[in-house]
Design a protein that fits this description.
It is a single chain. By secondary structure, this protein is mainly α. It has one domain.
Length: 128
């Protein structure tokens, strides 16, 4: 694994842990926390499996299904986080929209490479 991939994996995992901690502090339900951990583990495992092909296990259609479920969960969780975030009373409605757009773009920019590489691993011929 290249040094930049290790650095990226570390940043992704730290972001995932920060999100989990935020959900835990927000007193989310146990099933919610379980889904959050599971989705992050699936994405991280598939991302690492790209660099270490020995980690790839042929589970047939299970791997793509887990990937799609993890990706759907991440989209749901992003929408839930945006819906439940507390607005700053000093900001205008336009400023709130701007913050939401910038936050979404930053998180997507950080997470998209992991999702893309995990998707490549999930949908390669050896897993279908």
């Amino acid at each position: 694994m290249a040094w930049w991939a290790i650095l990226y994996t570390t940043v992704y995992c730290l972001l995932a842990m920060a999100g989990f901690w935020s959900d835990y502090e927000g007193r989310k339900a146990k099933w919610f926390l379980g889904c959050a951990i599971s989705s992050n583990l699936v994405i991280a495992y598939l991302y690492i499996a790209y660099w270490y092909p020995t980690f790839r296990v042929d589970f047939g259609p299970v791997v793509p299904t887990l990937f799609v479920a993890a990706l759907c969960w991440e989209i749901f969780q992003l929408a839930d986080d945006m819906r439940t975030s507390q607005p700053d009373p000093e900001l205008s409605a336009a400023a709130h929209r701007g913050v939401a757009i910038v936050t979404t773009l930053c998180i997507a920019g950080i997470c998209f490479p992991a999702y893309a590489i995990a998707g490549i691993v999930a949908f390669t011929k050896s897993n279908l």
